[in-house]
Design a protein that fits this description.
mainly beta; five-stranded antiparallel sheet; four-stranded antiparallel sheet; 3 helices; 15% helix; 41% strand
Length: 176
């Protein structure tokens, strides 16, 4: 797992030194997102192996642009190498991105979207047990005078545990 990170970091360094542009089109727009990153380690509840922890690093973002609020998240999954090629989750596994109005007390959800691609990504880990997933982007026309934020939840139905969907919440984005 660390080898993959080192190779990626090395490729980025080479690209910078040689003057190659690493960022794709739309990078200027992405710069206006305000993001928070949080992590959790989750033991695969359907596995009896001692090396079955999955590390989830979620970056939740929000931006205000052109009269709209946009929210999204990206998750990097660092799983055990032995799970590559093994179905670790069931088909109802998904990511949930929410746009919330920032108020005193509990922030109400004003718009949300489920992303179904998390299931496929987690069942197709690379040789090091890693993958990444980006949620759909939620677009919301805000009411004036309010601040908004993005909130992310991974809803995972672990294979072989029989418990159905379990929700794992991560830190919300800064308000915009």
């Amino acid at each position: 797992m660390r080898i993959a990170r080192a190779l990626t970091a090395g490729a980025a360094t080479v690209a910078l030194v040689t003057g190659v542009t690493v960022l794709g089109t739309g990078a200027a727009s992405a710069a206006s997102y305000r993001c928070t990153t949080s992590s959790k380690t989750i033991d695969h509840p359907g596995s009896t192996a001692t090396w079955d922890d999955f590390d989830f690093k979620v970056t939740t973002c929000a931006k205000r642009e052109g009269g709209y609020i946009y929210t999204k998240f990206t998750v990097n999954v660092d799983g055990p190498p032995g799970f590559s090629g093994y179905n670790v989750v069931n088909s109802d596994t998904r990511g949930l991105i929410q746009t919330k109005k920032s108020v005193s007390g509990t922030d109400p959800v004003v718009r949300y979207s489920y992303g179904t691609g998390l299931y496929s990504k987690m069942n197709n880990l690379d040789g090091w047990g890693n993958t990444s997933y980006t949620s759909p982007t939620v677009k919301h026309k805000p009411a004036s005078g309010y601040r908004y934020l993005g909130d992310s939840v991974l809803q995972i139905d672990w294979k072989d545990d029989g418990a159905g969907l379990k929700s794992y919440s991560f830190s919300a984005s800064p308000t915009v």
